[in-house]
Give the backbone structure.
Amino acid sequence: MPEPQDGPVIHSGDIVFDCPHCGKSLAIDPRGVGLMIACPDCGREVQVPAGAGRGEAASATPEERAEQVRSLAEAVARAQEKIERLVANLEEVRERRSYLEKLRTENLARFERIGQEMVTIQNAMDRIVSILQEASTEKGPDVPVGSL
Ligand SMILES: [Zn+2]
């Protein structure tokens, strides 16, 4: 089993990849593709991926660099579009939310008015009850009850 290279030196053409266990950036001779190596950082076994990020850090040609920058720029533009769509959606959600908030406030005001009317009704009921009680008190229990 080949040993990982000593030190951080990355040679042109080396395969550069991250350890799937600890994320440590590893560089290995391309002849190591498919081999299991021990990660120098966490010591766990890692399979060297085929051509992943080949020599990215050290050996990219200016053309490759330009291509990387172009695809990065495209990715950024796509992300920007996505963000704009999300912002637009957020705006809709905010509008909807403030509409619902307004509805809620209106309903609260309505409930409050209804509550006040209920108090009025309750007071009227109380008055009616006391009038009825007065009436029955005036009649009193002395009112002769029809006897058989
Ligand atoms: Zn590791």
Remarks:
- The first strand starts at residue 15 and ends at 18.
